[in-house]
């Protein structure tokens, strides 16, 4: 197992280009199951989760050619509809295959999905939404089996804007003739990217990014070409670094609109932020100020995926920050690890109260999940002395070559093998 060895305390300077959005590319890859042609996807980054999703697509019959950051997928011959536990268990996004398999083959059988241990992560909204459209779903022995049967177009009101449930319902409806409406769905940019991709293949989806999405079913989807959006969570992670460590970082392909709550926080803190059309530059010379009260909420509010990285910056900020995590019930597992490094944090129900300290100290810490792992790497960058971060495989799920990119900014970080 790999681990990172970080010698902290370095200011960071330089440019970093943001890779492909993991949480857009994952549903887009699942959406390829709906196409009866050849699909070319550009701006592909091979995070571990992407490699896991490609394994699933190959099992189902898609032929895949990898050309650096371009994927060519031959989706003409899909004949399998069962995905076993050893593949679904690797990632939450395996559940995104449910909708497209239903649309393409009229049936699907998936073992329950895996994913970061940040909560129970049920899929009841996926199942109840599909059932509302007439899909026959059997949830038994850890497997979901679904049959299109007499699925009909209709209206689904989601009680919570679940990203995955919205994406699954859209993909289940693309080839289902008639008009399906999703009310109260997720508005995340990644959902919009998925809809733009599906429309590029001939789907008829309107209102993506709003809480009223309309899908007019079409008989089939052709092949096509699409370029995936950049990852706004990775962009946000890098943009916090100057405020944490000092220095200046230019994040190329960062889209300020997609992370506007973070941009506003940085604008009101002790750093200078310049938002341009295709990049954002943050310069910081002084210690961060506390962030006051922060709530994670569905888009367009502060994203839950940046909660853990922000909590790291708050650890060494002047004053007290209170972060409330409203989306996942167990997304504070990185807190005991930060406390090992000298952070002063108390967990109180769904909130953490962070009293900023002057400095953190290197320690041996273990990444509990993807974004919590990123927060621990950030803590190592600012801590005095050496930090080892274990479970780097969890970080590799959503950050590509993180140590190389941080080294290019001046960090002293190495990937070693245990
Ligand atoms: C997606 O997960 C992302 N993952 C997550 O990113 C992200 O944190 C999350 O959306 C919220 O933005 C991918 O896109 C692969 P949800 P998803 O359905 O679809 C509850 C990362 O770090 N819920 O919006 O699983 C659920 O338990 C990952 O990249 C139900 O109760 O998120 C959670 O509390 C982590 N029933 C809340 O809704 C359901 O059927 C949000 O879940 C579905 C969800």
Description of the molecule:
The chain has 418 residues and is of the alpha/beta class. The chain has two domains: 2-12 and 257-262 and 288-417, Alpha-beta prism (UDP-n-acetylglucosamine1-carboxyvinyl-transferase, Chain); 22-227, Enolpyruvate transferase domain (UDP-n-acetylglucosamine1-carboxyvinyl-transferase, Chain, Alpha-beta prism), CATH 3.65.10. 30% of the residues lie in helices and 27% in strands. It contains 15 helices and 24 strands. A four-stranded mixed beta sheet has the order 22-23-1-24. It has a four-stranded mixed beta sheet with strand order 2-15-17-16. α13 links the parallel β22 (364-366) and β23. The longest helix has 13 residues, at 48-60. The chain is elongated. It starts with a strand and ends with a strand. The mean pLDDT is 96. Bound molecules: ligand EPZ.
Topology:
Blueprint: E1 2-7, E2 12-17, H1 22-31, E3 38-42, H2 48-60, E4 63-67, E5 70-74, E6 82-83, H3 85-88, H4 98-105, E7 107-111, H5 124-132, E8 136-140, E9 143-147, E10 155-157, H6 163-173, E11 179-183, H7 189-200, E12 205-206, E13 212-216, E14 224-227, H8 232-239, H9 241-245, E15 247-252, H10 260-267, E16 272-275, E17 279-284, E18 292-296, H11 307-315, E19 320-325, H12 335-340, E20 344-348, E21 351-355, E22 364-366, H13 370-382, E23 386-390, H14 392-395, H15 402-408, E24 412-417
Parallel strand pairs: 2-15, 3-14, 6-7, 10-11, 18-19, 22-23
Antiparallel strand pairs: 1-23, 1-24, 3-5, 4-5, 7-9, 8-9, 11-13, 12-13, 15-17, 16-17, 19-21, 20-21
Helix pairs in contact: 1-2, 1-7, 4-6, 5-6, 6-7, 11-13
